[in-house]
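User: Reviewer 2 asked us to show a designed sequence for the structure in our supplementary figure. I'm pasting the structure tokens here. Could you produce the per-position amino acids so we can include them in the response letter?
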């Protein structure tokens, strides 16, 4: 069976959500490690996913701060 060079459907989204959760509980370094390991074959997707996690993490932290939960 030959593996395709295309990223599997849902793979990046799953890793992004996992990395976001890790970033909120463990730290951004852990999130980046997950993304690096899971998306190393797709550098463009890796870069986009890192940016997405950082942006979403920032939004969540801002919401927590503005509601007094953080």
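Assistant: Here is a per-position design you can include in the supplement:
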């Amino acid at each position: 069976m030959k593996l395709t060079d295309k990223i599997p459907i849902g793979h990046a989204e799953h890793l992004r959500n996992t990395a976001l959760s890790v970033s909120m509980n463990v730290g951004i370094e852990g999130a980046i490690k997950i993304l690096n390991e899971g998306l190393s074959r797709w550098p463009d997707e890796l870069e986009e996913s890192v940016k997405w996690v950082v942006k979403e993490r920032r939004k969540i932290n801002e919401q927590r701060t503005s509601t007094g939960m953080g």
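For the response letter, you might also mention the following. The longest helix spans residues 43-66. The helical segments are 11-25, 28-39, 43-66.
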